[in-house]
Amino acid sequence: MKKQSMMRKTYNMVSKRVVGVLASIALLLSLTMCETDFCNENMYVVGTLRAFHKQSKSQIDVFLATMGSNGDTIRYVNRTNGSYANFSLNPESDTSRFYILTADTVEIGKIAIVHTNRNEFVNAECGVRTLSTIDTVLIENASEGDSVAILFKDVDENYDNGNIEIFLAGFE
Q1: 134 contacts 113 by C-beta, under 8 angstroms
Q2: Cβ–Cβ under 8 Å, residues 133 and 116
Q3: What is the DSSP letter of 58?
Q4: Bridge-partner residues for 138, per DSSP?
Q5: Phi/psi at 50 (nearest 5 deg)?
Q6: Which residues in 34-126 belong to E strands, given as ranges?
Q7: DSSP label at residue 143
Q8: Average pLDDT of span 106-127
Q9: What is the reported pTM?
Q10: Do the beta carbons of residue 81 and residue 74 sit within 8 Å?
Q11: What's the half-sphere exposure (Cβ side, CA atoms, 13 Å) at 155?
C-alpha cells in the first residue's frame, strides 16, 4: 500500500512539473511570435508630398525619384497616389534627395529633405522600424519664387496627411 501511495505522489509531482514546463513554453512562444504581415505593413514608413504652380495655385501631378549619393542615380520612382507623391526617407542618413518629375518623367526640380531618424522596437520577430521627423526641406537650384511648406514634420502611417507642399514658380 505504501509503495502504491508513493508512486501516486511521484506521478502527481512529475505531471505537475510537465504541465508547468509546457505552460511556460507556450507563454514564451506567444510573447515572441508575430504575424509576418504585420511586420511588412509597418516597418517602412512613407511620407507624402504635393506640388503646386506658384501663380495659379493649381496642383501638379508629380513623381519622386530617389537620387543616389552622387546626385545622378535614380534608384526608384514613387508613383503618385491621387494628388500625392509618396517618399521613403533614407534610414541610414540624415538627408534624402529626390528628383521631382512630371508624369512624362521631365525633371522639374530637386529637393533635399533633412530629417532625424529614430528606431522604434516593434517586437522580437519584427525587430525595429525607423521613424523619421522632417527638419528642413530645401529646393536645390530653386527658381525665384519657389517655396516649400512642411505641414507635418513626423512621417507616420497617416497617408491622408501631406507632409510637404512644394510651390514651383518656374514650372509651365
Answers
A1: yes
A2: yes
A3: -
A4: 112
A5: -125, 145
A6: 47-53, 59-60, 62-67, 74-78, 80-81, 84-87, 95-102, 107-123
A7: P
A8: 84
A9: 0.69
A10: no
A11: 30
Three cell numbers written together for 73:
542615380
Residue with cell 501516486: 8
Q: Which three cell numbers stand for residue 48?
A: 507624402
What's the N-to-C CA distance of the chain in angstroms? 101
- Please check whether residue 51 is in contact with residue 60, taking contact to mean a CB–CB distance below 8 angstroms: yes
With vertex at residue 20, the alpha carbon angle to CA 16 and CA 24, rounded to the nearest 5 degrees, is 175
Give 83's DSSP letter: T
Amino acid, res. 80: T
Mark 137-157 as b/e (b = at least 16 C-beta within 10 Å). bebeebeeebebeeeeeebee
Q: How far apart are CA 106 and CA 171, in angstroms?
A: 11
Q: Which residues contact 91 (CB under 8 A, 6 or more apart)?
A: 117, 130, 132
Tell me how far apart the alpha carbons of residues 110 and 65 are, in angstroms, rounded to a whole number: 9
Place of cell 510537465: 18
Return the C-alpha cell found at 68. Answer: 543616389
- pLDDT tens by residue, 137-165: 998 877 777 889 999 898 876 656 688 98
Q: Which class for 18: exposed (0-12), middle (13-18), buried (19 or more C-beta within 10 A)?
A: exposed
